[in-house]
Amino acid sequence: MKPRGSNTLGYGSTMDVVKEGHKLGLNAVQIAKQYGITYAAVRGGAYRLGIILPSVNGRAGYGHVKSLVFQEMDSGLTIRQIAEKHGLKVSSVKCVNDSFKLGISRSKRR
């Protein structure tokens, strides 16, 4: 087993391995195990190559919540309704709304 944080393949070889694993549809953990490199090396290589690897634990990738909130921006739904509709945390939707000043209402006004 390799020590944490090490990568003995070298920069170019690691990039080749990440590309190959991505073509096979493997996630970062599977690529690391199959090729004997660390998870961090795989994630770093994928980041530098601009490759989005499949989720490791079933969670959505980075930017997923933001894209859903932007899609629902003009729908007239409240923050809570958007969260419930897409199975998101209310705090996540609220954070996107506040960060980008989208103006989505927190509750329906009567």
Describe the structure.
The chain is mainly alpha-helical. The protein has two domains: 1-57, Arc Repressor Mutant, subunit A; 64-99. The protein has six helices and no strands. It has helices at 11-23, 28-35, 39-49, 64-72, 79-86, 90-99. Helix 1 (11-23) crosses helix 2 (28-35), helix 1 packs across helix 3 and helix 2 (28-35) packs across helix 3. The longest helix has 13 residues, at 11-23. The termini are far apart.
Instruction: Determine the number of helices (DSSP H or I, runs of at least 4 residues).
Output: 6
CATH topology descriptor of the largest domain: Arc Repressor Mutant, subunit A
The secondary-structure element order is HHHHHH
Largest sheet: none
User: Helical amount among residues, as a percent range?
Assistant: 40-55%
Distance between the first and last residues' Cα = 62 Å
* CA-atom Rg in angstroms: 19 Å
Number of strands: 0
* Uncertain stretches of 5 or more adjacent residues: none
Provide the CATH architecture of the largest domain. Answer: Orthogonal Bundle
- The proportion of strand residues reads under 5%
CATH class of the largest domain reads Mainly Alpha
Round the mean pLDDT to the nearest integer and report it: 84
Shape: elongated
Query: Given the helix and strand composition, which structural class is it?
Result: mainly alpha
Number of domains: 2
